[in-house]
């Protein structure tokens, strides 16, 4: 089954200059990249992304982490990979959530760490199922930013919307 999956290279991955390594590892999947961009993560976006973890003791830490406040890198790289069994292929390559438990050859096992304050810095986010992928992709990307039609869209006419264009 063809699937879409949201991948985020988190601020620790960017700070450690791992973008190339991570993309090389993900290319082993032979999946297609159908969207990619750099994103400045607002508190609102981070909280919406992790809203299902709101009651966890580490919630505030991961909001700060995703915003780049722990790494002096206030950005993440967001990508959508698409193809056969995309979620399982990418999750397998990423490895377990806890980088100390992740297989040592996985992305998180190779590059992740647990900080002294207990945050799992695991360099990459991968959606974990179809409904999570759809929710996350719609949160991080607009329909025009992907090169395939992933989900149903509608056209609306917006008047008096201020937007920035090249001068
Ligand atoms: P996942 O990223 O493998 O899907 P989630 O349970 O969705 O794992 O957790 C989101 C993120 O929160 C993880 O990637 C990790 O950075 C952090 N995290 C999850 N569980 C813990 C924990 O027990 N302690 C500290 N950080 C955690
Ligand atoms: Mg998750």
Describe this structure in words.
- This protein is an alpha+beta fold and 167 residues long.
- It has one domain (2-145): Alpha-Beta Plaits (2-Layer Sandwich).
- The protein contains seven helices and six strands.
- The longest helix has 11 residues, at 130-140.
- Inosine-5'-diphosphate (IDP) binds at residues 53, 58, 62, 97, 118-120, 122, 125, 128.
Could you give a quick summary of the protein structure above?
Helix content is 33%, strand content 19%. By secondary structure, it is of the alpha+beta class.
CATH-scheme architecture: 2-Layer Sandwich
The gross shape turns out to be: globular
Poorly predicted parts: none
| DSSP helical segment count | 7
Average pLDDT number? 97
Helix proportion range: 25-40%
Give the count of structural domains: 1
Instruction: Specify the CATH homologous superfamily.
Output: Nucleoside diphosphate kinase-like domain
First and last CA, distance: 44 Å
- Could you say which structural class the secondary elements and strand pairing correspond to? alpha+beta
Number of strands: 6
Largest sheet: 4 strands, antiparallel
CATH class: Alpha Beta
Approximately how much beta-strand content do the residues carry? 15-25%
Rg is 16 Å
Series of H and E elements: EHHEHHEHHEEEH
Q: CATH topology, what is it called?
A: Alpha-Beta Plaits
Q: Which cofactors or ions or other ligands sit in this model?
A: inosine-5'-diphosphate, magnesium ion
Numbering strands along the chain, what is their spatial order in the largest sheet?
2-3-1-6
């Amino acid at each position: 089954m063809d699937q879409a999956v949201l991948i985020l290279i988190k601020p620790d991955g960017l700070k450690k200059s791992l973008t190339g390594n991570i993309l090389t590892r993900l290319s082993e999947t032979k999946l297609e990249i159908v969207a990619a961009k750099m994103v400045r993560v607002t508190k609102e976006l981070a909280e919406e992304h992790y809203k299902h973890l709101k009651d966890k003791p580490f919630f505030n830490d991961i909001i700060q982490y995703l915003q780049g406040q722990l790494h002096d890198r206030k950005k993440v790289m967001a990508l959508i990979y698409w193809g056969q069994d995309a979620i399982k292929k990418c999750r397998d390559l990423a490895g377990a959530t806890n980088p100390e438990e992740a297989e040592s050859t996985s992305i998180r096992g190779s590059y992740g760490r647990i900080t002294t304050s207990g945050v799992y810095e695991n360099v990459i986010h991968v959606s974990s199922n179809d409904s999570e992928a759809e929710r996350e992709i719609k949160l991080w990307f607009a329909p025009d930013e992907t090169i395939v039609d992933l989900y149903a869209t509608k056209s609306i006419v917006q008047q008096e919307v201020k937007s920035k264009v090249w001068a």
